[in-house]
Amino acid sequence: MSDKLRKLLLFGLFLLFLNVCKAVKINSITVPQRYEIKDDTEPLIFNCDFTVSDADTGFVLKWLHNNIAIYQWIPSKHPFGLGHFKGRVDLNYTLPTNDRLKKHSALVITKPLLTDSGNYTCSVQTFQGADRKTDEIQIIDPEDSIDLSYQFEADGMVKLKCSVYNIYPVPEVDFLLDNKELNSANDKDVQQDTELFNITVTTVLNKTEIVDDSPMTCVVKIPNTDYIKQEHKIYDDPNKPAATKTSILGLTKLEQSDAASNENNAEGIRLSSTAMFSSLLLVVATFARF
Predict the structure, then answer these.
(1) CB neighbours of 150 closer than 8 A, spacing ≥ 6?
(2) Which of 8-12, 30-34, 91-95, 140-144 shows the lowest mean pLDDT across its residues?
(3) One Pfam family from the UniProt entry (predicted)?
(4) Rounded to whole angstroms, how far apart are CA atoms 164 and 196?
(5) What is the set of domains in the chain, with CATH numbers?
(6) Assessment of whether the complete model's pTM goes beyond 0.85
(7) I need a surface site. Which of 78, 167, 214, 216 has the fewest CB within 10 A?
């Protein structure tokens, strides 16, 4: 074979390779970063946008969860669910499009479970080529409550404690003091009740490090998501000097006493004046008879 013929053959194979690569292309997939399970849980929807050549044949679309097929659709057939997603996928969901190859391309999970966290892959195949894209989602069951407290230790230390009840997955729990993250080491206790977790985190500070009326904050975060919750409390030092109590008018107790005394004296003067005036009228009336 001549060099010229060999070069033409290689060039032809290269063009064929480019055509095959361009035959199927997934442009993007839409996978929410997180999904919260609630009492009125809505379906979880994933979308897959792709481009397929008009000349392509043998189209098959699949969705995979952690590399295991859970949904498949061939345009000439009805879509179906696979594995533990069978019965939890809306097989009648259609996209508002005129593109027949995208009618059932979305994955709709009607009853999301905590175990549905992980990687989701959209796979598109034809006889001429294939492509796939993957993204990750975290399923979250929000906490029932967050409890932040502190207590004074005998050695002059202050123990901060934050408890998070019935949450999934295990969150990161940190403390803020005066809106600044504490660098002290935290002790973390994790207990699991069925699928949910109870977490208690404690840290110890020297009392001298805390200014009275300082804001304390417990920050709860789910890693790799934008989920964040906070609980706040104001530090109250029981050994702080007692503040002078004032009345609504802003008077001290002594000032209130003086004011009351002055008011009583004034009232006495008014009563005395009234009595004297009455006596004077009585004398005038007596002389008038004569």
Answers:
(1) 158, 159, 160, 161, 216, 233, 235
(2) 8-12
(3) C2-set_2
(4) 11
(5) 3-140 (2.60.40.10), 145-234 (2.60.40.10)
(6) no
(7) 78
